Structures are given as structure tokens and as C-alpha cells.
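Consider this pair:
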Amino acid sequence: MEHPIPGGLREEERVLVSEQSWRPCPEARRRLRGCLEWVKRQLFRVGEDWYFLFVLGILMATISFMMDLLVSRLYEAHRWLYQEVGDIFVLKYLSWSMYPTALAAFSTGFSQSITPYSGGSGIPELKTILTGVVLEDYLAIQNFGAKVVGLTCTLACGSTVFLGKVGPFVHLSAMAAAYLGKMRTSVTREYENKFKQNEMLVAAQAVGVATVFAAPISGVLFSIEVMSSHFAVRDYWRGFFAATCGAFMFRLLAVFNSEQGKAGWAGCAPPPPFPFTPPGRGGRSIFGVPSPKTTHSFLYPSPETIAAVFKSDLKIDFPFDFLETFFFAVLGAVCGLVGCAYLFCQRWLLAAVKENRLTAKLLATESVQGVCLSAPCTLCVRVSVLCSLRVCVSTPCTLGVRVSMPCAMRVHPIHRARVRASAPCALRVCASTPCPLRVHPMHPACPPASPPSSKPVYTVLVVLLLASITFPPGLGQLMASRLTMKEYLTSLFDNRTWGTLVPNASSVADPPGVDPWGLWQEWCHPSTTIFGTLAFFLLMKFWMLILATTLPLPAGYFMPIFIYGAAIGRLLGETVALLFPQGLRSEGDPHPVIPGGYALAGESVGRVDTHGWGTPTTHTLTPPHPWFSTTGAAAFSGSVTHTISTALLVCEATGHLGHVLPVVLAVLVANAITQKHQPSFYDGTIIVKKLPYLPPIRSRHMASYQVVVEEFMERRVVALAKGGGFEEVLVALDASADAEYPVVESAGSPTLVGTVSRAQLITFLQSHEHPRAPPGEKLATTGTLGDNCAIEPIMLQLSPWTSLHQAHHLFELLKLQRIFVTRFGELVGAVSRAELRRAIEELTNPK
């Protein structure tokens, strides 16, 4: 028979064993531990932000480069397939249309199956998040993987779908920053600060743009203009440091890669137009087709150097003629007018697709099992204005379960014991984490979950239509459809005048493939002129580009409008060259017009003879600076996005800053027209999607200074007395679904004391006795609200006489969601983003 060992003896035995435990080299381990702690102190003395931003820039640059490399391979396979099928019309059509259609369908199906928030660019949602609204699902790590795979497939579709990369990559950078921020807090054991997270998201958006264009300065400025209404200057260094790390790493990867030309520019992932070398003469073969041989031209720097993405040989002896400034202003006005038409039609089509019964059914997101849509269901809970879904709770539950703002898919039960949990139900119901409760529908009228999403079907139909129109033997021959996105820019930025090249090229046979030395020949057609093909391209791509923006796949929309603007500039440049064949003369020798400059922004091209068809020869005249194509690219993209930094972006991408003045002139004129009549592309998407974003107040709305808070505030505010008990709290929670409730001194004295969160009120209810509860559920705890809940003091409040403009400024600057209004300390109302938005809409569109 064993005798029990006394507790003291057992404890003594445990201590003795612990003290006598042997570990090798205790002195060395102690010294090593001390060294590691010293290194950690020294590293974190600089600040962990530096390491975080460095890792973010390197990571996104690597992802961007590898994505471009993979897209280049996929597009080479498509080009090889199209050439290998021969001259059989049906096979050529199938190879041209089915390849991008399959990639786009896979992009949509894969990304939407993981998360429905992976479609589109992500910039409107990220812009909303930066205003203080919580949209956690858009920054989830599973969204990152879905968007990377989906975006790669979208870019591999090439110019058939005509979509880009900028927007989704900014979203990817933000998701990476959010995940790295969580890792940083776990390493440093710090409390996760919302303001710290916002600072890192601001830096992440700059990294996203910089790693696409390898342009850190314009990347930071563009991200600030697009994403922020108010920008803290203290965040400047974060954006520039991270963007510089990303851009530098992106260029280093291009240098280290032997095929630097294929992935040299992230904006247009398909392969660049390098000259082909026949097999047996130093060239390589990919899928049996001669592969491009790396050459060092003005657009493609040698792999041994770090240079601009679009490095050019254009001279700056005389940057631009005085008379050309007039045409730059005209080009800006044209881009502004076309931008207004584009923005209006794009917003109208997005709304029409959502309202149309057929397209709305195809684009409907798959519903979650356990969602009640039946109208007569009295057990359905209230939801936010963002979503029409109503969640049905179990039948015995008589307490209302309401949705917390801003997420309509999360509800918080008032009484935990009366909500049944269900394992198969994937609907999260608790607004305060962590909570394992899940709502299971018990109503017999609740319909089953809808069938799987039909978004890939919509994508197949749209992409098939676009591919059929761009089929090269068909209408595509009038649109240079065989060119890739990068080849479009290369041809449009050509420094020769196409009008003088066409007569000399009339006897040249049409090559079976794209001639990288003569990309301009893709714009030539025997039945029309250069002006006809450019005009037809602009006409067709206008509505095709708008239609492509409705596709539910990860895609960017900046690069397409950039190329479209370059085509506008090229058309105007060719027209000016036709009207002034001898060039423009203000004083001295005339300066010939080079339309390629008008595509970018007015660049002079050294002593170039534009009348030769082959190699440029020396000219005796001092060259002009045309930049029509580049100016058009900067002006149109700037007008659509309401940004000025596109002028610096094109200059930084080409490596020439001497011609920024005419580019800025055109961009300013275009922005002046567009901003007066239409919201930006991203603001328009926010309006159509009805995201909880606060619209800006234009400077011309001077009436915002006359409108005061008293005119639009919410007067019926659910308040709690400091001495309230169970019944008062229950009535308040049942009356509204606010995240926090104001606390006043007493029912007779509405002096505002502070606020209490909804989560604390739920805890207060769960720990108190219900008057009508069964005897087994009675709890012994009693007390008042002031005794058991932590009342937070009010740090900011409005006066009834505060103007709408001042209130709007406070909401934007402090990223507020709701402010209480007091008169001499007494609570008289509240102002939330909903009331403020309605007031601004009534001011903009009075009834």
C-alpha cells in the first residue's frame, strides 16, 4: 500500500531536480544570449520601421518581376500557337480567341472561388480603408494569393483584353503591409496600433506604384494624389524609402536577369519588340520560333547598367518651341473632353450592368448557407445600408440580433444563450473578436444557398467578344491588334513621322509576324491612311476599354488609359506634322514636328531626318521637341485619375526631366476640364459600388460654409443614463445597432458624460439577472451601468452651429465615424458619415 507523498516534499523534489538538471556549455550559452540581446537592442535602436519598409519594398519588387517574367512566357506561348496553326482561318481564330478567353475565365473563377473581394483594381476599397472604415476582408492574406494568380492570368491575355497592373499591385502591396504589420507586432510584442497600420498602408501604396514603373518619386506622388485627401508630411520618408527600395530592387533584378528586356517594365508584361535573329545566327528558339535577341536601344538599356525604364536618346539642345505650347494646350483640352466622356460612360455602364437582370444574375456573388432572403420573415435582423441580406436567428430567440457597422455580414447577439451555434454555417456573427458564436437559420421559409457564381460565364462572353473584334484578319488589322501592350507604347512613341514613311513602305510585303524593327507598319493598311487606323483604334478602344472594366477579375485600368492617351497624342501629332511639313518656326530655323513626342510629352530628338524610311540621317536643322504621344499619355491618364504626377511619371520613366513643362501644361489643362465636370475614375467606382467613402466638397460649393450641423444632424440619438440598469440597456441595444452609445448624467439632465461600447453593454447584460428569465438562468449580479461599465470620456464634440465644411474637414482629417453634437454640454444629436454624405449630396444636387 502506497502512502501519499506530502505536497511539500514533492515540491522540494521538483525544485532539486530542476536545479540539478545539466545543460552543456552554460557559460557559452549565457554569452551567446547576451550577444543576441545586444544585437537586438542595437538593431531596434534605429527603429523597426526601417526594416519593415525595406522588406516590403524588396518583397513587392521580387513579386512584380517574377510576375512579369511568367506573363512574358505565357504570351510567347500564345504568339507561337497563333503562328504555328498556319493559314487555316478557323484554327487561327480559335487560337487567337480561346487562349485569352481560357486565361480570363480561370482568373475569374480561381480568384472568386477564394474570395469575392479579389476582383477589380482594389484601389477604391483601399481608398475607403484609409479614411478609417474597416474592411478587413479586403486585406486578408487569402486575397493576396488569389489576386497574384488572377492578375498574372489577366496580364497574359495581352492587348486582347487591354488591362493593366497598377491598381491590383497597389492592393497587393497594401495586403503585404498589413500582414507584415501583424508579424511586426508579434515580434516586438507591441499593441496593434490602428494609426501605425495606417502609416504603413500609406507607404505600401507608394511601393505598389514604384515597383510597377520603377519610378519612386512619381510613384509616391501618384499614390498620394489618388489615395489620400489629407497626407501627413511625417509619412513622406516612409513612402520614399520603401518606394526607392522597391524600384531599385526591381531594376537590379532586370540587370541580373539575362533576359532583362522581357521583364524590364512591369506596366506592360508581354515581351518587348526586340529584333529577331534567325536561328543559326546567334539567335535562340522558343517553341520552334526564333526568340528575341537582346539589343540595347533607346527603349531598352543594356543589362549591365541601371537606367530608366524607357531610356531615350532624345536630345535636349532646344527642349520645345514656343509655338508648340499652343498645341500642347490644345492636346490637353482634347484629352480633358475625351476623359469626361470616358468617365461618364464608364460609370453609366457599371451601373447598368448592376441593374440589368441578366448581367446582375451572372455577376451575383455566391450566397452563404444560412442567409434568409424571405420578406415575411419576422425573425430577420437588421443590416447596414451596405447589404440587403438579412440573417435569420433561431426561433426561440425573441431578442433582436443586429448587424454592426460597417460589415453587413457580421452580427452580434444580444443574448448569447439564445443563439444556437451551427458547425456547417460559415457565417460569422460576432462583431467583437474573439467570439465563436455562429448563427444558424431555423426559419422554414429560408431558401437554400444560391448556385455557384456565374461570373466566369460573364467573363467568357465579354472576352470572346473582345477577342473576336481584335482578330487580326478581321477588324483587328485596322487596330494594330497584333501588338502587345508594350509594343503599342513603343510604336506610338516612335520619333519618326508615319505620314512620310507610308509612301516608302507601300512596296513592302506584310510580314507573317510582327516586325520589331517596323512596329509602325502594323498601323498601315492599304484601304486607309494612318489617320484612319488611329481614329478607328480610338473609336473602338473607347467602348472596348469601358466594357473591360466590368470584368470581375483582378485587373488594373491605368495602363490602358495611358496607351489610349498616347494614341490621342499620336493622332494630333501626325495632324500637326501634316499641316506643317516644314516644321514650326518662331525665330531662326524651323523645327520639324515629331509626332511621337506628342504621345509622351514634347521631346526633341536630336538631329533627325524624319523623311527617311530606314535609318535616321543627320539633319542640318536644330531638332524640335514634339512629344505629342507622350503628352497625350500623361494628359489623358492624369485627367481620368485627377492627378498631376503623371507628368512626372512619363518623364521619370523616359529618363528626361528637361521637358516636364509642356507635359505639366497639358496635364493641367486636361485636369481643369475633367475635375469640373466628372469625378475621378476611382471616385466614380466608389459611387457605383456604394462604398462608405466621404465625398469631397469642391471649392466652388461656397454654400458649405452656410450649412450648419443643426440642419442635417441626427436628433433621435439613443442615449443611456449613468444610473441605468438591465431594462434600459436592453431597450437601447434593441433600438439601435451603434458601435458605441452616449452616456448622460441622468434621464432628466442630458449632460454628456462619455460613451460606452456595445461590447461592454453585451457583457453587462450577460452578467445581470433577466427579470423574466426562467429560474435556472437567473444570475446574482446586480448594479448600474456606471458601476459596471468603463465610460470613455468625450475627446471631441461638435456645436450645432459648426459649418458643414468644418465638420467634413474634421471627419477627413481625424478619420472619424461619428461625432456627438452638444449645446452647452447637453446632448442634442449626432453626426455620422451617413448624415454628412447626404448633406454633401443635397448640396451638390439640390432638389
